[in-house]
Amino acid sequence: MLDRPSGNASSNAPLDTDLVSELLLGMRLVGVDYRRVELSPPFSYAFGEGDARAKFLFVARGVVVLRSPSGVLHRMTAGDAALLPRGGLHLLGSSEDLSQPCADLGKLSKSPLCTLVSEIKACDDFACPPADRVLLFSACMDFDLGSMHPLISMMPEVMRVDTLVNRYPEILPMLEAMAREARDGRAGYAGILARLADVVAASIVRAWVECGCGDATGWIAALRDPKLGRVLVALHREPGRTWTLAELARQMGVSRSVFAERFVAATGIPPLRYLTEMRMRLAAQWIARDGVPVETAALRLGYGSQAAFSRAFKRVVGYPPSRTPAAAA
Q1: Within this chain, do residues 83 and 197 fall inside the same structural domain, yes or no?
Q2: pLDDT digits (tens, 9 = 90+) for 58-69
Q3: Model pTM score
């Protein structure tokens, strides 16, 4: 289930929606592999084994039980959807007895429906008529929050959509459309399902952020302080600018010591260290995902010396920028 904000005064302070929108602009949550799955009960499968990518799961018909890596059981019925932001091994079954998964769902035989979308049918045509089969739509997702990447570690293992419908009623028609498309199989349904899955998954993330990310730690706490929140957004907006502690304090209208104290209280680390870590996460993404040359990343992020950039990168990421996949290719 999606976590709710705690009841203390600071967590009840409203979020600045403009700042949330600014930070979410960099979010990249796109499905890269979609599957329409029909299963005959009883069944028990491993789901997502050996894959750390985010997963999305939608139940179009029937009932499934999803067990997270920590062992929590989630009963999902028709119309339910969930985002699994950190991927990993989940178990999927027709009942709570998930002790013996018979196979990895992703390794079952599949047939293509269209680009990026395939179909898996693990059905007993004689014992289980179509109306009694469980119908699912799943996706592996490229989940990138840009400079906000540490938020992923704060997210629940399983982020359920059913807790959002009352607060965000606009999600319900999308879920209903997904159910119709999955069941009816009309022309072009596979592509429509894929696009709807992307939107629903992104809506789950946005709702979690707007609800306070489960608590008031990290940059969400900073967003509850209007002055500090605007400084934080300025850092994310211009990561390559030559920021100084004095300049950041002036933007907030307080002394350097007061600014540093409030920043550390909200984020847990000093402001210039926060800036360096944010820069290196961005650099790693640019180099690995977009093929940006190391020297270009260094210049974009305000480093006049590639050697200084490489030292900072290794200190934060754990290895030199030349060892990232795209740079090494």
Answers
A1: yes
A2: 999 999 999 998
A3: 0.70
